[in-house]
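Module 6 notes. Inverse folding takes a fixed backbone as the condition and produces residue identities as the prediction. Think of it as a translation problem where the source language is geometry and the target language is the twenty amino acids. Below is one complete input and output pair. Work through it position by position during the lab.
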């Protein structure tokens, strides 16, 4: 498989648990998913004409989507072909919607567990999605913000921007 230098860097960073993002002309790295926490709070106010602050969400749509609740990854070690390299991760009570990947990209058990966990988190990342209209210019993909004053209490939580 041929990949660009950027695709190679993205794959390597993913496998090692490194997040990276750009701000202006600088690139930042973090090994923690909360690295882009910016302390941004959005106030939910559906009447856009009554609010003059620059951190207001005027619409909020929420959706839950069906995602795999179990991941099974299997790989082969060519030095020891009979050694069973298989790892799995699942949500509590999972196993109804499984994904099986026969090429897990690991050659040792120690590598397999964190890679399987990261891949499972990636597959589950779209299970809870919010969509907002806001006037906050500080938001960009990767930033984490807190929604406040929504009438449905579970929505008043921390959210991470995935698209703008």
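Target side of the pair, the amino acids:
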């Amino acid at each position: 498989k041929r990949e660009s230098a950027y695709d190679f860097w993205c794959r390597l960073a993913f496998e090692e648990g490194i997040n990276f993002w750009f701000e202006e002309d600088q690139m930042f790295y973090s090994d923690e998913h909360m690295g882009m926490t910016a302390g941004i709070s959005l106030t939910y106010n559906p009447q856009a004409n009554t609010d003059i602050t620059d951190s207001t969400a005027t619409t909020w749509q929420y959706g839950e989507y069906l995602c795999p609740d179990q991941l099974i990854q299997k790989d082969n070690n060519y030095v020891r072909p009979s050694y069973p390299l298989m790892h799995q991760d699942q949500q509590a009570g999972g196993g109804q919607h499984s994904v099986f990947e026969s090429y897990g990209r690991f050659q040792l058990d120690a590598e397999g567990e964190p890679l399987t966990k990261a891949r499972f988190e990636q597959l589950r990342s779209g299970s809870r999605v919010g969509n907002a209209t806001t006037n906050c210019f500080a938001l960009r993909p990767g930033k984490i913000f807190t929604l406040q004053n929504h009438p449905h209490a579970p929505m008043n939580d921390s959210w991470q921007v995935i698209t703008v």
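Reference fact for the lab report: The mean pLDDT is 86.
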